[in-house]
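Worked Example 4.2. Consider the chain below.
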Amino acid sequence: MSQISTSAVKTSGASRARFHFAMLLPGGFVTFVLILFALALVVFLGFRLNGGNLLGDGYTLGNFATVLSDPLYLTVSLRSILIAGLVTATTVVTAYPVAYYLAFHAGRRRKLILFLVTLPFWTSYLLRVFAWKIVLAYNGVLNSALMATGLIDEPSLAFLNTPAAVVVTLAHAYAPFAILPIYVALETMPKSLTEAAADLGAKPFTTFRKVILPFSMPGVLAGALVVFVPTIGDYVTPALVGGPSSTMVGSLIQAQFGKANDWPFGAALAVSVMLLIAALILTVRSMDKRYGSRT
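Applying the procedure from the previous section yields the following structure tokens:
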């Protein structure tokens, strides 16, 4: 009997191992083949010379030297960081009150508001960008409304094809990505903390500044990171509503892989952006640990 039970246990363990392997296989394939292999290929291309073929000819550091020395790419990179930073700040500042209301004052309306927050995910990102283009256009909704109220006499060109248009459009598109992490952080905060602050005589603003805001900082940092990472490499929005003065590094990368047919230099640009994002992630992680120690 003992031999039979031992063999049954071994058979069951082997079956369980095969089942776990089968469940992990699709995710492992996507991670190691479609993601890591593609990433390794981009890094490899960044060190190649452009020979007109897919993998380039020979090895060089010139691509990265050009990225670091050419004023054009430095200017566009700094502009991308600035625009992405403004988008992140605008998104977090506007998202925090919504998350705060959801966590503490929404009540029975919480599910409805959460539904409305996630509703933009039901539509295409391009449709949302085109909607803003219609709103900000020369004969668009905003100019028509301002003319109807008598604030302006003729349509203005100051709304579309500007960095401000890019910031507004991206902030609207990525607002849910900031609202949800902040809401989760606030929702998990023990109410006893605010009650203790009130018992000690703290005013509402003092309670918010000394208790609520520090506790929610991990959510704020997570939301900021989730917004900053995709916006710094965005090229669709600047192309549609930004114009030449709002060209970002994503547009340059797309041009190198497209019109210029210089895949090695495009890969070097992409790797440079990834290194910048990696440095940002490390900074945010250190900040998260610092604020986490306070809570």
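DSSP finds 13 helices and two strands in the chain. Residues 256 and 262 are 5 Å apart (CA to CA). Compare this with Example 4.1 before moving on.
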